[in-house]
Amino acid sequence: MRVTYDPAADAAYVELAGPLGDGEAATTIHSIVTPGDRGEVALDFDADGRLLGIEVLGASAVLPVAVLAYAVRIG
Asked: So where does this one cross the membrane (predicted)?
């Protein structure tokens, strides 16, 4: 598992199955709004319905500080 964080976009991505290649996510469920409307979450699934990754927008308000500290900075 790998977590990346782009501070400029305040977006994080949790890779559950390694880095995704183009088109590897067969289905993405978008716009899951977090409680308190503090951020949004998108879930990426493969063709077999396995969860591949989780994108978190508004990451600094939604994710625990320890997760952001662990994350690889990008951007």
From this structure: 51-72
Q: Tokens at residue 7, please?
A: 């501070």
CA distances 8 to 1, 4, 26, 42, 65, Å, are 23, 12, 28, 19, 16
Alpha carbon 64 to its chain centroid, in Å, reads: 13
Task: Say how far apart CA 59 and CA 57 lie, in whole Å.
Answer: 5
Domain boundaries, the chain: 2-73
| pLDDT per position as a tens digit, 42-56 | 999 999 999 999 999
Taking the CA atoms of residue 28, residue 45, residue 59 and residue 75 in that order, the dihedral angle to the nearest 10 degrees is: -90
Q: Give the SS3 label for residue 1.
A: coil
